[in-house]
Amino acid sequence: MLLALFAGLMVMTNRRLKAALGTPIAQIEDAIIVVADGQYDTAVPLQDREDEIGAIARTLDTLHGRLLEAQGVEAQREEARTLQAAVVARLAKTMIALADGNLTHQITEDLTGSHDRLRNDYNSAVKRMAPD
Question: Which end of the chain has the smaller Cβ count within 10 Å, N or C?
Answer without folding.
Answer: C
